[in-house]
From TrEMBL:
SUPFAM superfamilies per UniProt: P-loop containing nucleoside triphosphate hydrolases, Winged helix' DNA-binding domain
Family statement drawn from the similarity comment of this UniProt entry: Belongs to the CDC6/cdc18 family.
Keyword Transcription regulation found: no
Signal peptide range in chain numbering: none
Known role: Involved in the initiation of DNA replication. Also participates in checkpoint controls that ensure DNA replication is completed before mitosis is initiated.
Protein name per the record: Cell division control protein
Ranges annotated as biased composition (Low complexity): 83-102
Cellular component GO terms held in the UniProt record: cytoplasm; nucleus; spindle
Lineage top rank: taxon: Eukaryota
GO BP, one annotated term: DNA replication initiation
Subunit annotation: Interacts with PCNA, ORC1, cyclin-CDK. Interacts with HUWE1. Interacts with ANKRD17. Interacts with GRWD1; origin binding of GRWD1 is dependent on CDC6. Interacts with CDT1; are mutually dependent on one another for loading MCM complexes onto chromatin. Interacts with TTC4. Interacts (via Cy motif) with CCNF; the interaction takes place during G2 and M phase. Interacts with CDH1.
Keywords from the named record: ATP-binding, Cell cycle, Cell division, Cytoplasm, DNA replication, Mitosis, Nucleotide-binding, Nucleus, Phosphoprotein, Ubl conjugation
Span of domain Cdc6 C-terminal: 420-500
Amino acid sequence: MAGGASPFSSRGAGTDRRTQPHPALAQLRLQAALCHHQPVVPAGDDNLCNVPHALSCSPAKRSKENQGRRLLFGDPSASPEQPKGSGPSPRRGGPETPRSSGQHPRTRLFRQEGSCYQQAKQVLHAAVPERLQGREKETGQLRQFLLEHVLGRRPGSLYVSGAPGTGKTACLSRVLLDCKDKLAGSRTVVLNCMALGSPQSVFPALAQQLGLPVATGRERIRSLEKHLTAQGPMVLLVLDELDQLESKGQDVLYTLFEWPQLPSSRLVLVGLANALDLTDRSLARLGAHLSAKPRLLHFPPYTKEQLTLILQERLGQVAGDPVLDSAALQFCARKVSAVSGDARKALDVCRRAVEVVELEVRGQTLLKPLPKGDSPVSPVPKRVGLLHISRVLSEVFGDRLAGGSRGAQDTFPLQQKVLLCSLLLLARRSHAREVTLGKLHDTYSQVCRRQQLPAVDQAECLSLVTLLESRGVLELKRAKESRLAKVSLMLEEAALEHRLQDTALVGSILTQGLH
């Protein structure tokens, strides 16, 4: 080789002298061969000198089923992903060995624990399942109402009530999906009233969905009434979080529920909200005419047995050994059903418990060498037990729920007691059962300063109110701005005060009052 020639230059014509590889490339090639379990290629083929025959075509492309495949921990069929567009290298001296070939059996060096936890967290999310456990009766009544009124062209209204997490929206969504073909000849409009800026905003939102021209004030309502009483397909209007449309005089709710009673109306209205007595309390005028009164459908809280079935069905979708211990699952179902019967809360508690265990496992080991002959489905590194569920329940609901009854003094955690005392003081001063969250937080902060207690911020205050709502103590009417959300007592003041007058601290707060 000439003194100025590069060590990577091709051999000249008429000579078979091989060039020497660069030391760095030789080392990289050796590492790559070891990582992929490929035989080490003899030195000196960096410039294809040792390839006996030039490749006549481009490398074989990977099949679509193998492209973008995710690596599932503990899955023996999964292999490390190759870089996008990678194929057999000409350095290997030929086309890529098929995956089915037994020439170079592939073994995994390490297994990362955790695929079972990822799957468990995925199935525990509150998505709409194919079948809703414990809601067969309610689902059947929803389906019957829609088919009778929409397909039968009979205008009418239905009010669906139930506490949060009892399956109202999930059941209706399931029925709408199942009856999609049957309802294809009608127009379906679904609005979440929580997303509306004000109760009156429901009318422009509905007009936009129906493709009506822009109008304002009474003209907009007249335009909607004219459209809903003209010839055309039936209109199914679903209003979730219906209680957000409550206003002074309840003009918006009365207008909506009276539309199905207009002559030649083609509107079927379905409203969903938490309050059981919304129609009796806010729409008493509708009771004067039986035809105008909406049909009622109530979703009761889930029982322990129903929550157990829901959790078992979700976790049964995870391959391999159970992630949750059976006793832990039963414990979660029993505790949540005793407080709220909220299926979303039960799913959330189990999912958070899985996250706790997953973090513990990750902390113990990051990579674990595989024993020889590992089974196709790897065992669960660590199951979710009673202690994990109890720990999460304590964080979500307070110590009494997680650890069992400890007497009247532990009915509520300290911060919840102070918050309830603040609400009682506000109710006494303003002679109103309903206050804004911002006002409640201001009063709560004032009480904490006076008692020399640490106070939580407004976001944490909202979390406390949500927990108390799940226990049936408070009612929360959410708004776009959390500070404007309305909070009201679900219990009588005397009954709540009796439950709180069990410590010197609570008694001192209520005695001092507000200044």
